[in-house]
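Ops channel
N.P.: pipeline sanity check, posting one input/output pair.
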């Protein structure tokens, strides 16, 4: 192997600690690198000057950014195991490491398939996070006789504040500083009191149950479930993004990541380090790097704390905590002695370099320009609470108008709404380590009271914690007055990526804003912003600010991304668990009135045709109706393509799915069977629209495979294929050898498959917006924010009252998907349409392994690979419904069951992480669409279908023909309401 310099100049010395880990060697990209046993791989690579890790494109790499396992930027492949976070993995001698490149993924299984259902453990109190808040809470609970379980993703307890020293270091006599010492003592006392601290354990899913909280846990090599009566969320915070040109270059990282390298591993982030941001943490980190011999070329401080007008703030700090205030002054003096300049009132505006950071550009007071030669830039512009699990649990949040991200709403004792959930530390709002530790005590005392275990000692501890916390908050209040950044917000340049994961630029967001996009959901579906590994943690707020032109005064929880499961990427194979199968879709009663609606768009007083529902069917109907010269308005609660259509995975089905034929099928399967000619023709119409609208819908018809693994399933496939051929669908049953030739990654256990060459896939994020744009071009008017609350028949049409306006229409089309039944009841019609909440799963991207659309002959499964490499997994696995909003939410058992079927069918899935999931409200009828005029209700029409995305444009075309009084291209017999006796009131 080629020898790589050790990078010894980046290793810090000083009096605090000395290297003690054994020198080891490992390989990176085939070159020998020297590290130390026990340190993180990120530290070893940084010490060697190797900053480019995750391959983000053919010519673009990413490196260590957050240093705490949040951003997913430092991904590497270790011994063939892909998607490993270098900041969370320990360096081992002889390990073989490569950059994580999805195009070259080895796909070695990331664990062993579980045997049976996940283990379930019951505890009274679970605490998430082992920082100052979590440890302080656990200590009080344990001292009161409980046995709390503390779950923490980091390899050692202490959190981001205490940052325990790695085993690769040892203390010199008298060299342990106060921060290390306090953390070590708190951990020791917490364990001695009887706390079970489980390091390396991450919570990937959380849900409130009837008797507590259920947590899905991912630990090394396994996954299990904890059921707790109460949960204390002490998940801490992460650093706020600062998107400037070049902020994605290797060598640009957060100040917290730099501090972890310097404190825990005694590694400098670079040879020439610039620290930029706001607040005293940046000063402390600069001093820590310099004290170990590192070179800090300067601190860019966006505030002006040394100006005389800030004297009252400093006096307030002295009054609140004299010792801490004077310690801050001493840091400034030490920085001066170290020769580190502090540029006050100065912000970083760009980082440049060819593949890694080389030069930093800053803007100072009066527009002064500064430039620095660097190889590392550390960004520290404040913190954001970690709210992913809190929001997954349905606890209340609001939108912070200063940054556009979620801000928890908690009671004085830390209780989060009505759930058995308490929040402590920076996860409840940024307050610093002292506030966090005392918040943990207060939350623990409240839990003891709720459990009936409170005593005088706990009450005294809580009172003392309130006093200490109040004093610390006073100090923080004056501190941030001193460090207030009073400069106007810095506009993000158009070319700057806002979404690091998917490379979505500020310019792309502004272009869609100018088209009328105002919500994050629509932006996500148009650009993929927020769909990457960090799940929107760094981009959501910045994007929302751009969409709203910086005015977030009216933003609320409905404007945020929906919380994601898993909370962070998890090896898919560890979550697998076989579940019982069922037929078709599981139905629910949809909620007619959602609690949150966007501001209503204006409506005209009248229109010829009013379409209720802006999904693919409603949009297509409007487009074709307008093309026939009919004045058309489309209304919806949300923006177009927001619900089932926007949540569709993009399968273009022509074959029957397994639950649409045989014993599982509704109505004997005949409705679904007579629908498939429509599906075949619908795929052709999609292709025509892609061509005619000059769009790129990413349509591919590479065929569909429905696989069977035994004789019974084989017989089922043969019968189904014969029935499909009788309807004019080209389907053949192929052998094991033919499967291997077409799709070599299909499991060998699959003995035959039904192959239909007409099946394929489409990208709904591109296709539906193109239909909306064409409908608008034809004169259709779309209006969001309108929940229909009443419809009254008139002599010449209908008066429709919404939550925002009233409109009269000569004709009305109900195309509201799973909510259509509620609309029908307003005019005295019982539409046989039910809601069916479904969920989908998405893996990290990988190299091409799945060309066809894949389904299973006896299991709920649909599976395909998107253009960007993600595997998209579904198959009508039921989702739940959120009692607070009525919208769909993912269920842990459905995730586990869906993954079991998927990996059984495509074993390469075992080498991938589950990246995200989503849920949407589909519809269920009887296997066939429901179309046409509603008997006895002149001018009233309906259009709905369970396979709505494949059929969408065709159903819209047929519906528009009916509305216009033209003969449809397809006969509608068998698809109208007439097949359901007694439907009309």
């Amino acid at each position: 192997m080629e020898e790589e310099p050790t990078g010894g100049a980046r290793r810090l010395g000083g009096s605090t600690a000395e290297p003690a880990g054994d020198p080891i060697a490992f390989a990176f990209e085939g070159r020998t690198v020297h590290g130390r046993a026990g340190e993180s791989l990120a530290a070893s690579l940084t010490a060697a000057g190797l900053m480019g890790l995750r391959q983000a494109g053919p010519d673009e790499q990413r490196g260590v950014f957050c240093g705490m396992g949040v951003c997913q930027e430092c991904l590497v492949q270790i011994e063939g195991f892909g998607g490993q976070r270098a900041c969370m993995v320990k360096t081992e001698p002889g390990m073989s490491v490569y950059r994580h490149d999805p195009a070259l993924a080895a796909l070695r299984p990331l664990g062993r398939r579980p045997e049976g259902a996940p283990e379930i453990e019951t505890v009274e109190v679970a605490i998430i996070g082992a920082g100052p808040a979590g440890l302080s809470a656990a200590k009080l609970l344990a001292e009161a006789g409980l046995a709390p379980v503390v779950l923490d993703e980091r390899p050692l307890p202490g959190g981001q504040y205490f940052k325990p020293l790695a085993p690769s270091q040892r203390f010199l006599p008298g060299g342990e500083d106060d921060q290390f010492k306090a953390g070590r003592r708190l951990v020791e006392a917490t364990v001695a009191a009887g706390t079970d601290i489980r390091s390396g354990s991450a919570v990937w899913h959380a849900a409130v149950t009837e008797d507590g909280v259920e947590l899905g846990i991912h630990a090394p090599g396994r996954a299990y479930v904890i059921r707790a009566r109460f949960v204390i969320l002490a998940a801490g915070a992460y650093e706020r993004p600062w998107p400037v040109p070049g902020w994605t270059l290797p060598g640009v990282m957060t100040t917290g990541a730099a501090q972890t390298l310097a404190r825990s591993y005694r590694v400098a982030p670079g040879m020439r380090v610039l620290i930029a941001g706001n607040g005293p943490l940046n000063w402390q980190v600069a001093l820590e790097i310099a004290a170990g011999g590192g070179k800090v070329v300067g601190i860019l401080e966006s505030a002006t704390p040394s100006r005389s007008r800030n004297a009252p703030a400093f006096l307030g700090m002295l009054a609140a905590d004299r010792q801490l205030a004077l310690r801050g002054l001493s840091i400034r003096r030490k920085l001066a002695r170290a020769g580190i300049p502090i540029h006050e009132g100065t912000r970083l505006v760009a980082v440049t370099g060819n593949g890694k950071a080389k030069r930093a550009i800053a803007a100072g007071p009066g527009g002064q320009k500064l430039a620095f030669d660097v190889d590392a830039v550390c960004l520290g512009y404040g913190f954001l609470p970690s709210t992913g699990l809190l929001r997954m649990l349905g606890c209340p949040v609001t939108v912070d108008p200063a940054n556009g991200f979620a801000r928890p709403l908690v009671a004085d004792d830390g209780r989060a709404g009505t759930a058995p959930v308490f929040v402590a530390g920076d996860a409840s709002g940024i307050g610093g380590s002292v506030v966090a530790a005392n918040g943990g005590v207060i939350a623990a005392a409240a839990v003891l009271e709720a459990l009936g275990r409170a005593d005088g000692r706990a009450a005294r501890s809580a009172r003392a914690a309130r006093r200490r916390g109040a004093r610390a908050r006073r100090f923080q209040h004056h501190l941030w007055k001193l460090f207030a950044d009073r400069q106007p917000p810095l506009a993000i340049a158009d070319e700057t990526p806002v979404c690091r994961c998917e490379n979505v630029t500020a310019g792309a967001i502004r272009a869609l804003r100018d088209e009328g996009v105002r919500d994050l959901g629509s932006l996500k579906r148009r650009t993929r912003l927020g769909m990457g590994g960090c799940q929107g943690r760094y981009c959501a707020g910045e994007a929302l600010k751009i969409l709203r032109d910086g005015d977030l005064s009216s933003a609320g929880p409905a404007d945020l991304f929906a919380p994601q499961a898993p909370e962070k990427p998890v090896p898919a194979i560890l979550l697998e668990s076989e579940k019982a199968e069922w037929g078709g879709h599981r139905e629910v009663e949809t909620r007619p009135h959602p609690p949150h609606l966007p501001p209503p768009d204006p409506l005209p007083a009248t229109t010829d045709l009013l379409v209720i529902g802006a999904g693919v069917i409603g949009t297509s109907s409007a487009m074709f109706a307008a093309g026939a010269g009919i004045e058309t308005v489309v209304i919806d609660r949300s923006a177009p393509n927001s619900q089932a259509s926007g949540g569709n995975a993009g399968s273009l089905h022509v074959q029957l799915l397994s639950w649409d034929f045989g014993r599982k099928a509704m109505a004997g399967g005949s409705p679904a069977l007579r629908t498939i000619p429509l599906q075949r023709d619908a795929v052709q119409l999609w292709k025509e629209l892609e061509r005619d609208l000059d769009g790129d819908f990413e349509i591919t018809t590479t065929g569909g495979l429905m696989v069977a693994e035994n004789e019974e399933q084989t017989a089922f496939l043969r019968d189904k294929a014969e029935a499909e051929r009788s309807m004019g669908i080209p389907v053949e049953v192929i052998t094991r050898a033919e499967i291997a030739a077409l799709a070599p990654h299909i499991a060998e256990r699959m003995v035959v498959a039904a192959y239909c060459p007409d099946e394929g896939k489409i990208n709904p994020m591109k296709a539906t917006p193109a239909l909306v744009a064409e409908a608008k071009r034809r004169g259709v008017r779309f209006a969001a924010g309108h929940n229909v609350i009443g419809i009254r028949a008139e002599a010449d049409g209908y008066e429709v009252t919404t939550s925002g306006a009233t409109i009269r229409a000569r004709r009305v089309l109900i195309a509201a998907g799973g909510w259509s039944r509620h609309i029908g009841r307003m005019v005295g019609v019982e539409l046989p349409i039910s809601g069916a909440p479904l969920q989908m799963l998405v893996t990290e991207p990988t190299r091409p392994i799945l060309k066809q659309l894949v389904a299973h002959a006896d299991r709920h499964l649909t599976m395909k690979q998107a253009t960007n490499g993600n595997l998209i997994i579904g198959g009508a696995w039921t989702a739940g419904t959120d009692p607070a909003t009525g919208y769909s939410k993912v269920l842990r058992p459905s995730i586990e069951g869906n993954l079991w079927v998927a990996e059984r069918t495509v074993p390469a899935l075992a080498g991938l992480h589950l990246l995200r999931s989503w849920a949407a409200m589909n519809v269920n009828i009887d296997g066939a669409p429901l179309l046409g005029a509603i008997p006895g209700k002149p001018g009233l029409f309906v259009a709905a279908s369970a396979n709505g995305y494949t059929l969408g444009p065709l159903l819209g075309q047929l519906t528009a023909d009916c509305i216009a009084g033209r003969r449809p291209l397809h006969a509608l017999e068998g698809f109208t309401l007439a097949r359901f006796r007694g439907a009309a009131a």
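N.P.: looks fine end to end. Confidence is low (pLDDT under 50) at residues 1-7.
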